[in-house]
Write a structure and sequence with these properties.
Blueprint: H1 3-6, E1 13-16, E2 19-22, E3 24-25, E4 28-29, H2 36-44, H3 77-84, H4 89-102, H5 104-108, E5 114-121, E6 126-135, E7 138-148
Antiparallel strand pairs: 1-2, 3-4, 5-6, 6-7
Helix pairs in contact: 3-4
């Protein structure tokens, strides 16, 4: 049995058009055994203004707690790019690289040995990011997150 199958997980957090939302069934919180929440939080958790380039005042408060290892910290490199820059070919490549860095802990922890990230413009401001985690050349996790590029940017006070 691989580590993905025995992962107890967090609360199931699913991607919704306005962000993530927990799932409830029969008045109980649903547990995530598919590893989706950990990947989602790695990409969309933390502070979206924290680009991870240097220690800065934008780091998520949970990263400053005693005993937090580097692999446990949420750094929002991916969010900083998609919320703070226009969708261009160069920025899509930057977003792919940032997503891979935000998910590097998966390889560091031995859950997978390769992460394949593919970003694609779907429409003018809609973006799809596919995350495929491989272990011994087999996919142990694959999901596509579809989101609005620059959804968190307000222009002209709107």
């Amino acid at each position: 049995m691989n580590s993905i199958q025995i992962f107890e997980g967090d609360l199931l957090l699913e991607d919704t058009p306005d962000g993530g939302d927990i799932q409830i069934e029969n008045d109980l919180f649903v547990s995530d055994r598919s590893f989706n929440t950990a990947v989602y939080l790695s990409l969309f958790g933390g502070n979206k203004d924290d680009n991870g380039k240097v220690k800065n005042k934008f780091t998520w408060w949970g990263n400053t707690l005693a005993g937090i290892s580097e692999s446990e910290k949420l750094v929002s490199r991916f969010q900083a790019i998609i919320f703070g820059s226009p969708m261009t070919t160069k920025n899509i490549q930057r977003a792919e690289t940032a997503a891979e860095l935000d998910l590097k802990w998966v390889v560091d922890e031995g859950i997978g040995d390769k992460i394949i990230i593919t970003g694609q413009a779907v429409t003018r401001n809609k973006f799809a990011l596919t995350v495929n985690i491989l272990s011994k050349k087999e996919s142990v996790y694959k999901n596509t997150f579809t989101l609005l590029w620059q959804a968190g940017v307000y222009k002209n006070g709107i």
